Every structure is written in structure tokens, then in C-alpha cells.
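Hi there, hope your week has been kind to you so far. Thanks so much in advance, here it is:
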Amino acid sequence: MEISKYADLAIMYISEYGLKIIVSIAIFIIGKIVARKATALLKTLMHKAKVDNTLVEFLSNVIYFVLLIVVVLASLNTLGINTTSFLAVFGAASLAVGLALKDSLSNIGAAVLIIIFRPFEVGDSIEAAGASGKVEEINLFSTVMVTPDNKTTTIPNSKIISSNITNYSSKPMRRIDLTFNINYNDDLKLAKEIMMQVLKEDGRILEEPAPMVAVGELKDSSINFVFRVWVKTEQYWDVHFDMLEKVKLAFDEKGISIPQQQMNIHISK
């Protein structure tokens, strides 16, 4: 009699919830497959649209996670479970996690802005957040740069996006600005001709925009020349150093002197 009672009870529960359980499992399995395929499709479309790979991976993970939550909620609803309280708990948990990880989330948000607006890319030489170097990696939390003396610098993305960013590689040409000083008793025209000759003999200096050599200042103890030439960005430092050396050697050869800073002290008796 007791066994029959439990059997009847089991049959009642199976008949009432069995179909719901089967439907719920089916919704979860099918929904998971659909979520995976939808994410893969969006990922393919983003790749075709030439969206940055880092952003593609990040958005794909977020989209799949959101779709999976929808599938789980739909599955629980089929079982007759009230998901309102679950959503409230999930919302509170999300808020707590968000507050705990606010710095990390701000770095992720900054990474998305960097990837979308592209103030710089991997391989560019930049200056940002008090550091300068060549960008080696942009991940979701930080930007990794290699300094000119081969040190690795890792900077949080939020600090980079909130600072001034100077990209030295974004343009194909850069201008070299130098200053050369000569004594007042030296031949001004000769000094200018020497500098013009030096830059004309260097094939790396571009003709357009035109180079310029001009008197910039008449100081107390020297005449200062402004020396400006345009070069390809990748040749900037090579030409910069070569011009300093070549002009100095040419000045020495022609007897043009570069004044040294000095202080005259007059002692009255």
C-alpha cells in the first residue's frame, strides 16, 4: 500500500514536471548551440569589416556570455522557476563585481576606445602617460612599449587614454629642427652657404617641403641659425645626428667657429 502511494506520487511528479525538464534541457542545449553559432557569425562579420582582432575577441566573449544568460533564464522559466529574484541577485552581484573591478573595467573600456579610434597601433613610436617608446602590444588591460634603450614599459590603458598621446609614426614625414650658433665676427653668408651645401649633399633630405636655413636670433654672444629639413619618418634620427656632425665638420673646415658659453666677471678695485 505504502509502495503504491509513492509510485503514484512519482508518476504524478513525472507527468507534471518530466516534460518541462525535457523541454528545459532541450532549450538549454539548442540555445547554447545557437549562441555559439551566432557569436561565430558575428565574429566572421567583424573580421570581414576589418575590426581589430583584440576588439573582435573581446566583443565575441561578451556577446556569447550575454546570449548564454538569456538561454539559461529561458530554460529556468520553462521549469516554472521565477527568474525575477535570480535577475535581482545577478544584478546585485554584477554591481559588486563592477565596483571591485572598476579599475580593470576602466582599462578595458580604454582599450576599446584605443582600438576603435586608433590614436596608435602596434609598431608605432609614441609618447603617452609620461613614457615613450615603440608599441609592442595592446591588450585589454594595458599597452606594452619598448623604450629606445630596450626596456619594457607596461602602462594601464586608462592612464594612456586620459593623457596626451603623441604618435611619431603616424605621418610618413617628419621635420628636423636644429639650431647652429656662430660668432659675430664670422662670415654670416658663408655659414649659411655651408649649411645649405651640407643639406643639398644628403639625398635623404626631401626637396618638398623645402628645407630652410635662416637667422633665427641675434643673441648677446652669438648669431643663431634655424636649420629645418624634412625627412622620411624612419630616417629621422639618422639624419638628425648626421646633420649635427656634418655641419660641425664643415664649419671647422671653413673656419666658422661655434661660440662656447662663457661668463665675463669684472672686478673693480
